[in-house]
Amino acid sequence: MHTAGIFAVAAKKGARAPQDGCVGPIMSKEYAEIIVDVAAFPVDREFHYHVPPSLQPSLKVGHRVLVPFGRRRVVGYVVGFSSPPEDVREIRDILRILDEEPLITPTLLELAHWMSDYYGCLLVEAISCMLPPGARAKGPAPVRTLKAVRLTGRGCLGGLGPKQELALELIRRAPGQTLTVVSLEEQGIGRTTVQSLVKRDILQETRVVITRRPDDQALERSSQEITLTPEQERALAAITDALGQNQVFVLHGVTGSGKTEVYLRAIASALRAGLGALVLVPEIALTAQIMGEFQARFGDEVALLHSNLSLGERHDEWLRLRRGEARVVVGARSAVFAPVQDLGLIVIDEEHEPSYKQDDRHPRYHARTVAMKRAELENAVVVLGSATPGIESYYRSKEGSSKLLILSKRVENLPLPKVEIVDMRDELKRGNRTVFSRRLQRELARCLGRGEQAILFLNRRGYTTFIFCRECGEVMRCADCSVSMTYHQPEGELRCHYCGNTRRPPQTCPACGSQAIRHFGAGTQRVVEALQELFPRARAARLDADVTSRKGAHAEILRSFAARKLDVLVGTQMVAKGFDFPGVTLVGVVAADTILNLPDYRSSERTFQLLVQAAGRAGRGPDGGVVVIQTYNPQHYAVLKAAEHDYEAFYRRELSFRESLHYPPFCRLVRLLFQGESEAEVQRTAHLWSRLLGPKVRPRGWEMFGPAPAPLSRLRDRYRWHLWLKVPPEGPLPIKELLGDCAAQGSLTEVNLSIDVEPSFML
Ligand code: ADP
Ligand code: ZN
Ligand code: ZN
Prior knowledge:
This protein is an alpha/beta fold. 31% of the residues lie in helices and 22% in strands. The protein has 6 domains: 4-130, GIY-YIG endonuclease, CATH 3.40.1440.60; 143-208; 230-411, P-loop containing nucleotide triphosphate hydrolases (Rossmann fold), CATH 3.40.50; 418-462 and 523-658, Rossmann fold (3-Layer(aba) Sandwich), CATH 3.40.50; 464-521, no CATH class; 668-757, CATH 3.30.70.600. The chain contains 23 helices and 31 strands. The site of one zinc ion has 7 residues, from loops.
């Protein structure tokens, strides 16, 4: 869908326009270079427009403007000023400037240019990341409100129809005798009625920009003065000393070591130095708890940007940053583009999280990579915090391009929890076919008996993981995707989590006809039921994507758990992130293996991270904690080293594996994914591209792999093949230039090509 656009650049080599095309002391603003935002015309090139003299004094690079385009009027962005080439016949006028101040700052525009080159996306796609939420769909519309001007009582105005009477009545009753046009419309009062009243000077229409602030949904927290540990002090001093320079730190702190406190104080230092700060938190960890902490500390200086806010709220938060009213932003991935003024510090919490990579749409950027580039442009400090830093980040800190800060101990000398590994093959041999090992049952009994809390963790949602045939091993898969389907209990149906297909579970195996169809593994719902069979009085709740898709449900469940109205929380990845519940003394990992078996070079790293994060939820209070990991792979180093809380040992083992197979951090991976309805076409196109690219990449010393069917060889009714490039870890990555050259011959009509630089997943 986007591919045509990416490659249209081939027609115009070296597409990047100079920031200002004029030499000399005064930049002429007679002609502007404009990038237009037209979905049907995804071409990466600037068009020249004439700037009417009246607009010349105010027009700046980064301004959003209205321009004629064909027979339409479209939104465009000013990316520079220069005279049009000689051969351009018609130069049209810019019609209007859409915002008083440019929405895009010069630095962010430069960042957009870099993204476009590095990720091979359209410049306008990169720019759209930097716009206020909702601005691309429609401009920031002020709210139209109606106020009564003449209102002296029913009937005395004379000659009004019933609709008009009703409108007046509603306005009379409204607070301040003012209502928005929209709310009148919602009550059945149409535009004509309103206009007739405005014409007769009974109502006055005004446009106001109403600033919406998200509710303060902070959990109550004790804000006692905290004395930093010596390790926290050292880390904070290093960060504070570096403010004003471009420096990257990896803050490797075990779970419960007080990383957040270091962030908060570093931000306070930045603010004192007159610098702004940007804090990224994974979307699912962006809870009331963490937001409350920032709001409690910085009040109105903090703007929040996350998906639970309405578009309007996010838009207003964005504006507060742009105007400099808020100087700190806390948000999920896309907040990396927030217009923080005088940016001095970027914090990325849980920096190893795959959700920092946008992989479902253009631009396929990684917020960490973008943050590092932005910090370079703005001379800012970056702090990458994690208990389990990504292998790439840790490697860079070892190589010296970033600095390593270590918090090796939990605060108040709390011990790390003791971790037990249970071999589930043994349980089966002994006839235990339930989801809980005997060990985990004992620990649950102990924990609940003492009135303490437990978290049970697994990485699948739904009732069971999948359904398979015990005779022949056939797994029930989605007919359109090649993934196993998940059984959902209340509906009694199988569901595909990629495309949403559903079907009834079969009575007999479609492959061999056997009736030995059986559920395998356990989903959150099944675990809750099994728990309730064993401990009928335990108060348990699920926390997974099925449950929390309802707005507010997530926060509600966490609030009950924090208030100890729940004993056991059963959940997916979501429960493993960043929560701090001192009442939790037991964490059970129901099945450690699901990720370990994925065909992805990062599967060990992901498993290690999840196990450490899950274990880190235990024993944050005075009562200590126990962790039970159930697995069919008890000897795997990811499981063993997680149980020993030994990141260094895991890192060394993992790094030698990466080195031997030449995977990141020893290279950068680029994936070209070909998708289409005809398998033959997809395969043919993938091979064609391999032939086209070969002579271009080999002389650069890049390696190419494939083409081959992707592990998910079919998804949403489309066939998928991929081709991989291994690019040296350092140096330029001119994706756009390279691929653009092939586009003309690449036959991309029936097959869609998407490019993913440093993808998070290989499926
Ligand atoms: P991490 O993010 O490293 O897992 P947190 O930042 O969640 O750890 O800190 C765990 C708890 O310890 C929090 O409740 C925090 O307020 C508290 N804390 C942080 N630093 C200190 C300190 N120096 N002394 C006492 N408590 C602290
Ligand atoms: Zn499917
Ligand atoms: Zn079978």
